[in-house]
Amino acid sequence: MAVRSRTGFYRQEVNRTVWEVPERYRDLKQVGTGAYGTVCSAWDRRSGAQVAIKKLHRPFQSKLFAKRAYRELRLLKHMKHENVIGLLDVFTAEIALDRFRDFYLVMPFMGTDLGKLMKIQRLSEDRVQFLVYQMLKGLKYIHSAGIIHRDLKPGNLAINPDCELKVLQLYLQPSRVKLFTRIILFHCLLFSFLIQILDFGLARQADAEMTGYVVTRWYRAPEVILNWMHYTQTVDIWSAGCIMAEMLLGKPLFKGNDHLDQLREIMKITGTPSADFVVKLQSQDAKNYLRSIPKVPKKDLRSIFNKADSNAVCVLEKMLLLDPEMRVSASEALDLPYFSEFRDTEEEMEALPYDQTMDNTDLPVEQWKRHTFTEILTFRPPKDGKETSL
Ligand code: 0RX
Question: For residues 255 and 261, what is the distance between their CA atoms, to the nearest angstrom?
Fold first, then answer.
């Protein structure tokens, strides 16, 4: 006999696994899957919005999986900024901790990403300017919480297809039509994409995924690829610089065939590092290698981005520096003249501090499970969302 679902929940099979979700979520359709979980799009009857629901794959199968699941929930719960993915809801069909096995994360559905968008269209300078502004606002927020993204790439910059509609909804109120007609046109042409930073991370990023001619590595900072030193938030600034460069060029800036080829590609533009930088490296092998190669001067980025605005090139010059300590921070970058047209400093807010002590903690699976269950129970939905289903 089939076990009855919890009141208010129903069961459905998705890709040969059972999903048990609140009745408010309808029309589940798988949109992505990997070793760590599966994501479905769904329609939220309560808000009328399309949502993404992620079910983690056997989150308590090991200490590593359990810690990862707990971390994703904690991080998503913390994120409250329009340019960073946030949590609308989190639920489990289990009422008691002893039967708790699975849980589900609900987010706004993001239909596409910058990687896909760049494949199908060349972005105008105005669009690049606005997209980079949003990316840096999101990064400033993440970094202010003390978090490093570590895997910023076009595929992790989600784009909300509804944004154009939202702009129209906002301005097409009858009393405002005349006054804002010109603004509507301006917005439709220019501000039609909302960017949110997320981390799809559905699959394992094993060494194999970082080897060869692969997108997964093209946005990685040199100090990460070659393990040069203990890294900081500026690894994300390097990635942001690579992404901005690609938006302007219409193709990736550093397409290496392997780790060393990637570094060679990078140094063709940044030049070989100075002696002052090389002494700072922790790895003796890296020091020896960098001291042995012929010196190459830094290229003037204006020669590569010759069609771009000089203010745009100035941003890139400050991001794409080999020495992480010399790179601009997200907050400093937002102060550069390139963004002055768009700036709304109220939107550039900082996050509350994020407690990372659990990231360095080793716990048995049962403890991770208990902490995760508590995090689910204490979740409060965002003000414009509706209440949690637990
Ligand atoms: O986005 C995440 C996720 C985000 C994250 N952050 C830490 C660093 O700063 C940014 C936020 N850490 C862990 C995970 N998870 C996630 C991404 C996509 C997804 C489900 C979960 O599937 C979707 C979401 C929206 N639309 C379509 C598919």
Answer: 9
Q: How far apart are CA 19 and CA 26, in angstroms?
A: 12
Q: Please, are residues 202 and 32 in contact by the beta-carbon 8 Å criterion?
A: yes
Q: pLDDT band for 89, please (50, 70, 90 cuts).
A: very high
Ligand 1 pocket test, candidate residues 25, 159, 198, 233, most atoms within 8 A of CB: 198
Q: List, in order of start, the domains of the chain with CATH numbers.
A: 3-109+363-377 (3.30.200.20), 112-347 (1.10.510.10)
Share of the chain above pLDDT 70, in %: 87
Sheet bearing 104-108, strands edge to edge? 25-34, 37-44, 50-56, 104-108, 89-91
Contact 72/86 with Cβ under 8 angstroms? no
Q: What is the DSSP letter of 81?
A: B
**Which pLDDT does position 160 carry in this prediction?**
84
pLDDT at position 135 over 70: yes
Ligand 1 centroid–CA 85 distance in Å is 6
Q: How far apart are CA 379 and CA 381, in angstroms?
A: 6
The pLDDT assigned to 35 comes to 82
Distance between Cα 88 and ligand 1 center (Å): 12
Q: What is the pTM of this model?
A: 0.91
Name the catalytic one among 151, 261, 309, 344.
Answer: 151
**pLDDT tier at 350, thresholds 50, 70, 90:** very high
For the beta sheet containing 112-113, the strands, ordered from the edge strand earlier in sequence to the opposite edge, are 112-113, 157-160, 194-197
| Two structure tokens written together for 91 | 């639920």
Structure tokens at 327: 């790179």
